[in-house]
Amino acid sequence: MSTVIxxxxxGAVIGxxxxxxxGGGSVLxxxxxxxxxxxxxxxxxxxxxxxxALTCAAALTAHARDGHxxxxxxxxxxxxxxxxxxxxxxxxxxLPAAVLTVSFAVVAAGAAVRMLxxxxxxxxxxxxxxxxxxxxxxxxxxGAGLGGLTGVLGVGGGFLxxxxxVGVLGLRMxxxxxxxxxxxxxxxxxALAMRTGTADGLDWAVTGPFAGAAILGAWDGRRLSAKLSxxxxxxxxxxxxxxxxxxxxxxxxx
Length: 254
Known about the structure:
about 250 residues; mainly alpha
């Protein structure tokens, strides 16, 4: 029972972060699964993919209803990441736990640093249609990198997808957030397709409540973002993320 309560609490917090910030909250799913719920690093990245896919798919429906999803651009961007996500998903099961933990901590620290930087005016507003010429090679490279990251580490990559969609495809911010959910959902499902039999086993008694609480928390997070300063939320989350990354690195070294 205590495990279920912990899973519900962790899922709710991560869902709140996802809903309030539009991305980045899933980075906390893996450390929560490892250190709070006792899941192995490989199984944690697999469970995280399930949680990310379900949460993003649920959030995607709301953004689609509001007309904030650019389906064609999102699917093209996601297509470039499917192959790397498949390869990353297969590779993750063969990596030592310490390598996964250190890699994840580095990515988490990088995400935190990005969040602490003040966003540029262009990132805040997005670009008017046609303002940024789309370079197919650059778009493919960005999509492939995001897919590989999702496959190996089990993170959604929304903190990378949204800036890439703004800067590479020239989408406005709201469209980038909605389209980013589509990209992350596709990459997560592709990575999961290669995880069968490579993890230590998926404990649905933990993953189910975690994912359900994250989905519900994401809805509350959207309302929270309307009441609190986005900069305040982003800085607070980034500091927590830095602390988690430091703890993970310390745990490996010690």
